[in-house]
Amino acid sequence: MRSLILAFSLIAITAPVSAQTPERGNADLQTYCAGDALQFCAGIDPNSPQMDACFKKNLSQMSPNCRRAIDAYEKAGGK
Question: Is 51 exposed, middle or buried (0-12, 13-18, 19+ CB in 10 A)?
Fold first, then answer.
């Protein structure tokens, strides 16, 4: 019961923040791929299909950490 209350508290705290800034991906993608996104996909909305296409086009040139983050995200069910 205590963990259920904690979970609802976390949802209540984070819901307004996530509602204001809908973002795809996860923290690892943002951490490890931000530089690659700026280098290869500058000017593209990060939440757009164009960003997905840019990443696919440039995947072989992305940093190893970014490629690992993408692989982990996709294996976890991310799209």
Answer: middle
Q: What is the pTM of this model?
A: 0.65
Tens-place pLDDT, residues 9-42: 344 444 444 444 445 678 999 999 999 999 999 9
Looking at the structure of the chain, the number of domains it has is: 1
- Range of 55's domain? 24-79
- Burial category of 36 from C-beta neighbours within 10 Å (exposed 0-12, middle 13-18, buried 19 and up): buried
Mean per-residue pLDDT for 50-78? 93
